[in-house]
Amino acid sequence: MDPSLALLLGGLGFLLVLVVVPVLVVRDLSRGYRRRSFWRLVNTAKEVQCPNMDLSWLNLSWFVLRNANLTGADLTGSNLSGADLSGADLRGANLIGANLTGANLTGANLINVNLSGANLTGANLTGANLINVRRDKRTKGLP
After folding, report:
1. DSSP 127
2. Closest CA to 63 of 84, 77, 41, 35
């Protein structure tokens, strides 16, 4: 094979890898990328700022999310057991089916939060703002 042709084909192969691989990463790992981004955000921030973020079905048990801004966040089915959410702003958040057993929600803002099917057994709700909280017969642990 002519060396210039081999160089050209090698260059095309490299170009194909550069074009195809990112598409596959975005297409196949989009949920994983979202989750890794959240972990990085939590690990590097003094206060978590995640308004309107999709955090559904994550295992956040024992996370320290003190004073976090989680307004409008989707936490459907997430495991927040034992998490420290003291002073967190969860206004309008969706916590349908979330596990909040033993969570610290002291002073948390839970105005307009959907807690349908959520489990708050043993959660500390001292000073939490529970105005207009949505719940259903499956919701456990609310006063």
Report:
1. T
2. 84
Quick count: other Cβ atoms within 10 Å of Cβ 100?
A: 28
Which tokens go with 131? 């105005």
**Class level of CATH domain 47-143:** mainly beta
- CB neighbour burial string for 11-31, b if at least 16 within 10 angstroms, e if fewer: eeeeeeeeeeeeeeeeeeeee
DSSP code, position 98: -
Residue recorded with tokens 């976090």: 68
Residue type, 113: V
Show pLDDT as tens, one digit a residue, over the chain (143 residues). 545 444 444 444 433 333 333 332 323 333 444 555 555 555 444 678 888 999 999 999 999 999 999 999 999 999 999 999 999 999 999 999 999 999 999 999 999 999 999 999 999 999 999 999 999 999 999 98
Only one residue has tokens 């596990």, namely 99
* Distances 62 to 17, 54, 124 between C-alpha atoms, Å: 40, 19, 14
CA-based angle 140:141:143, to the nearest 5?
120
Amino acid at 41: L
